[in-house]
Amino acid sequence: MGMFDFIKDAGEKIFKPGEARKEAAIKEHLGSYGGDYSGVHVEVDGGTVTLTGQVASTPVHEKAVLIAGNVDGIDKVDDRLVVNTASVTPTATVVAKPDFSNVTGGVNSTEAPVDAGWASKTYTVQKGDNLSKIAKEFYGNANKYPQIFEANKPMLKDPDKIYPGQVLRIPPET
């Protein structure tokens, strides 16, 4: 939970010109990715999205924040989501909570308390990046790019289609 910064002019263009109620567009956008976001409530104030409610798992939580933030015109996500602990397995390990305020590429090593609800790190795509290069940086092995691709599905539909400013989930190495 916390406030996360994104690049305002990078991301999917989901808003119609002059659209006053952006909440419905973001809620529909969340639903288009196939996860269970039915417990997520969305509020938009300018370029800030506030997400409240419950989600079933840490990956769904992380993806909800990234889906909402990787939208053209959004530069902040106020994450107030709660993971329904009844659906989390006892073996789940939370490693770090990303701090988007200073992510410009490279490893984000900001650590957070275990109850922060994030298991992944994040990476902001830079010009010239590809998933192999990112995998080499995080895991020391470019051939581990499918792990990053899988962690960002269905947001990513093709491992060769990432764009500068996009924030990706980087799961713990398996």
Distance between the termini: 25 Å
Largest sheet: 4 strands, mixed
Radius of gyration: 15 Å
The CATH first-level class of the largest domain comes to Alpha Beta
Give, in order, the helices and strands: EHEEHEEHHE
Strand order of the largest sheet: 1-4-3-2
Mean of all residue-level pLDDT scores = 84
Q: How many beta-strand elements? A: 6
- What share of residues are in beta strands? 15-25%
Secondary structure: helix percent: 10-25%
**Can you tell me the residue ranges where pLDDT is under 50 for at least 5 consecutive residues?**
88-116
What structural class do the secondary elements suggest? alpha+beta
List the total number of helices.
4
CATH structural architecture of the largest domain: 2-Layer Sandwich
Q: Would you mind describing this structure in some detail?
A:
The protein has 174 residues and is an alpha+beta fold. It is 22% helix and 20% strand. The chain is built from 4 helices and 6 strands. The strands form 2 sheets. Strands 1-4-3-2 form a 4-stranded mixed beta sheet. Strands 5-6 form a two-stranded antiparallel sheet. Helix 3 crosses helix 4 (145-151). The longest helix has 12 residues, at 58-69. The chain starts with a strand and ends with a strand.
